Amino acid sequence: MFKTPRISRPARKISLAVAAGALLGTTALSGCSVANSGEAEGGTPVAGDTLRLVLQQEPPTLEACDSNLTSTGIVIRSTITEPLIERNPTSGELEPKLATEWSTEDEKTYTLKLREGVKFHDGSDFTAEDAKVTIDRAVNSKIGCDVEGYVFGDDDLDVKVVDEHTVSVTSVKKDPILPLRLSFLEVVPAETSATEKVREPIGTGPYKIETWTAGQSIDLAAFPDYWDEQPAFPKANYQWRSEASVRASMITAGEADIATGLSPEDNIGELGVSYPNNETVALRMHNNAAPLDDVRIRQAVNYAIDQETIVNSLYGGRDKVASQLVPEGVVGHNESLPIWEFNMDKAKALVEEAKADGADVSAPIEFVVRTAQFPRIQELAQVIQQNLTDIGLTVDLKMLETSQQLKYQVRPFPETDNALMVMIQHGNQAGDAAFTVDQYMTTNGAQSAFGSEEMDKKIEEAGAATGEERQKDYEEIFAYQNENLVQFAHISHQTGMMGISKAVNYAPNSSSGDELRLAEVTPVGQ
To answer: From the CB of residue 186, how many other CB atoms can be counted at a distance below 10 Å?
Structure first.
């Protein structure tokens, strides 16, 4: 049995033309900022009662069962809503949250004891029925929760209320990491709709939603009946700016306390804080149409991407070139898997070979990229588009806002006569390759373009394995992807950077880009 006492919270260059544009943008937008901080003697900034955050993009929704989406999770996870079990992003250990302990005898049925004395933001008590509905709604319903495909796949869970503060959860087959999977579910009241998604959830977290003014800002207020310690800031305000240089200038000008998705090139200076990121950037190639239905063209795309130059020129050498979808430290990472060689001659030869065999290499490829998803993404997309053009392919770059790009990110994908290629940013927040391959590499995975029977079999066997066998099985899966299916062209494992004002204390961690826990932020001096 796992049991842990009450948790204590941890302590704490762009071109001149672009820079000028950023300054103008900042001036125009500054009227929308939240006046808040002042200065103590000596000019040291002093935080006000509102924690001010500026993000890359507006969340498409705050639906709890879509919290695995980065733009949603960064706002709600462990801030507005809370999970039954929480993963410590530094140690990787599972810790109690709304469940205080859990146990299993067969790695199939798990019993969870729930925390008593917890209230939702509407004043109702948290009970086992809420936990059951949360799991049923996210995993077993037909409303299309993103977390279902990301974490649980096609298998349902059998959830039973044992008593007011105990639930049992049974999987279809043995699942040694089911508690880890459950850590991705954010708890909502039993009264939450089971037939449609909810834009603004009722949670149990330290903050509750006050207002969401679409296109402008989200305002939160500390929840006075929160079961744990009150957060340091009574209020929080989220805004969003797509230009990284604008977000950086809001930090340096004292208009925001935390800004996400920055790089040193955004002129953030000493207020830029780097942190280990779990995100990997890659191209996902669909085999729905020519020319990407020919594996030689997908191989050519890999040969045409100069990962080293991209990492060094666009990202200052901070990121690492990638050979697979998970970084070092994730169970299943294959450290012996080589980086794909950059060789334009080989790429051109493969295109010509496919053309000679009748492949329509002139058919257009729709290259879908999300605006402002991470720093310098448009420049990265343009570099890739040019390289693929240089080897004889026709690439139509489509920069889309979040809500539009998500249609291409997750099944069912839009119907099109053209071949699809989507830039993805995948973060394995759980530290186990199952959370990558189940959704990205199985034939019907939520974010997989295609697969094979052989790959599906390998993934099923790996998921049931433990220890060294599990590590070895996933290593083989990543090698099989590169040697046989070639659904992906990997680019880099990222390093994150936030702008943090001198008025607040916050130590970013590997999950901060997906789950920024506001209760961990304190004013300087507190």
So the answer is: 31
